[in-house]
Design goal:
Blueprint: H1 3-23, E1 32-35, E2 38-40, H2 42-58, E3 63-66, E4 70-72, E5 78-86, H3 88-93, E6 99-106, E7 109-117, E8 122-127, E9 132-134, E10 137-139, E11 151-154, H4 164-177, E12 180-182, H5 187-195, E13 201-204, H6 209-221, E14 225-227, H7 235-238, E15 241-244, H8 246-256
Parallel strand pairs: 3-5, 11-12, 11-13
Antiparallel strand pairs: 1-2, 3-4, 5-6, 6-7, 7-8, 8-9, 9-10, 13-15, 14-15
Bound molecules: D-MYO-inositol-1-phosphate and calcium ion (CA) (3 copies).
Length: 267
């Protein structure tokens, strides 16, 4: 394993220990709402602090973009993009579907990725140019050829309803033209599932950088494609993301096209 990835894994496992311990007594947590339906607890903060401390010890001059602690030194050559607990709503309900997502961007390029599921102890990792792995096993996207036969993941809007109508239009077509849709509730884990070939594709509107950075690299290293709703780059910035095996990717882009408002097109 690349030495930088080893440190990222160490950081993710430390966060996992904090989250697992807290999951034993979720009733004791102080829940705060950042905006409508956007919850955060001391666990999110403690997990992020542990990740940043681990990485800062090893790399004092690196920058950080963390969901809970914001941006530090983001013009550095090396910037870590961190979601310490992706799927907080699931976590708060005791639903064991959440993860830790950590990615490294070097001179603007994603180079290292970790998505760690502390419930199943599933560790998804990738290093640019070296493939994607689940624990010690190499993973690849699926080779399903038709959207009609595909299992597709998604995320439903739940706090920002700007694009609700467009989303529902997409959803309706996907319901009719796929083998099934899933909405487990942790975007980074959803993307890891595309990399593992468990889903054939995934799409969601308006995710944040920390939701998609690690999962995006995992998929590319597993032979899949990641794009915005027109199949272009820019998904990391806009958070409008389509990801799939190459054949299903093209069919998803085609299906989404009639539903794109000006705001949802490539910028
Ligand atoms: C959320 C989850 C969810 C997605 C939301 C994200 P959080 O992240 O990934 O699946 O639909 O858009 O914000 O807030 O639990 O880290
Ligand atoms: Ca959040
Ligand atoms: Ca998230
Ligand atoms: Ca989070």
């Amino acid at each position: 394993m690349h030495p930088i990835l080893t440190n990222a894994v160490k950081a993710a496992r430390r966060a996992g220990t904090i989250i697992n311990r807290a999951s034993q007594d979720i009733g004791a947590l102080q829940i705060r709402s950042k905006t409508y339906n956007d919850f955060v607890t001391e666990v999110d903060h403690a997990a992020e602090a542990a990740i940043i401390e681990t990485l800062k010890d090893a790399y004092p001059d690196h920058g950080f973009i963390g969901e809970e602690s914001g941006d530090t030194n983001v013009h550095a050559d090396n910037v870590w993009i961190i979601d310490p607990l992706d799927g907080t709503t699931n976590f708060l309900h005791g639903l064991p579907q959440y993860c830790i997502s950590i990615a490294l961007q070097q001179q603007g390029q994603l180079t290292q990725a970790v998505v760690y599921d502390p419930n199943r102890n599933d560790l998804f990792t990738a290093t640019k140019g070296r493939g994607a792995f689940l624990n010690d096993r190499r993973i690849r996207v699926s080779n399903r050829a038709k959207l009609q036969d595909s299992l597709i993941g998604t995320g439903l809007p739940f706090r920002d309803f700007t694009h609700l109508e467009a989303y529902l239009g997409m959803f309706k077509d996907m319901v009719k033209k796929t083998a099934g849709l899933r909405r487990p509730g942790a975007a980074a884990l959803d993307l890891a599932y595309v990399a593992a070939g468990w889903y054939d594709g995934f799409w969601e509107i308006g995710l944040s950088k920390w939701d998609v950075a690690a999962g995006g690299l995992l998929i590319q290293e597993a032979g899949g494609m990641v794009g915005d709703f027109e199949g272009n780059e820019g998904w990391l910035e806009t958070g409008n993301i389509v990801a799939a095996n190459p054949r299903v990717f093209a069919q998803m882009i085609q299906l989404l096209a009639p539903h794109l408002t000006e705001q949802l097109k490539s910028r």
